[in-house]
Amino acid sequence: xxxxxxxxxxxxxxxxxxxxxxxxxxxxxxxxxxxxxxxxxxxxxxxxxxxxxxxxxxxxxxxxxxxxxxxxxxxxxxxxxxxxxxxxxxxxxxxxxxxxxxxxxxxxxxxxxxxxxxxxxx
Amino acid sequence: xxxxxxxxxxxxxxxxxxxxxxxxxxxxxxxxxxxxxxxxxxxxxxxxxxxxxxxxxxxxxxxxxxxxxxxxxxxxxxxxxxxxxxxxxxxxxxxxxxxxxxxxxxxxxxxxxxxxxxxxxxxxxxxxxxxxxxxxxxxxxxxxxxxxxxxxxxxxxxxxxxxxxxxxxxxxxxxxxxxxxxxxxx
Lengths: 122, 186
Fold this sequence. Notes:
The complex is a heterodimer. By secondary structure, chain A is α+β, with helices and mostly antiparallel strands.
């Protein structure tokens, strides 16, 4: 792998991305957190996170922060995905397969509407 | 036991993050000549006291408060020992921890490495505050991914930006693919 060339490519990627961000209206940052404790991994959380990242890439979503976390103690509900839109309260979804993750991304993260059938009853 | 070794790697790397590591190095090496697979996860987290270290491979020992079991390390140890291999832990408080696990590469029970690319990608993006370094080696062919020069260039642009995601994905996938294809050609 030619490191220098690819780092030069990255500089261009950064310039283009920053230009795009200036144009887009600021609608606040959304955060998506995927649980990745041993329970989550065993339940397939890596594939769930993969689906989230694929959606962000393919739909070219700006202002979305995707991160991971450890076990939060609801192991039977894994894979778990939490969504925080701007200042709104955190919504926790359970048993999130890659397909359900894509649905949540589309309807909640982009569409702004909570997908209640997958929300974990507390 | 998890289905793929890359899932175990993801699991152990999570431990490093929980230990507040600022730098984690993952090395995966397939040595075809000696028929060994060697995986190392090295972090500069808070480390373990000798008492804790002695308990690390005990499935009923964990430092978390949400559950009473800690299965990650004991599972990996079992998987290695079932394949003519072993798991070693070195740890020092305030310095860090190193987990080294070895397998007989051709052992019939050795689970596949699996999706290393997605494991690496998820770690880099999921924990952006950590400095990640990955080494993937098959005999003499090695791919090294270091996210530090990348983060330096990106400055304030987040890793979750779609074009950065695409760049990271391409870099990691093509790096690993190149090592694998060089191996086939030799």
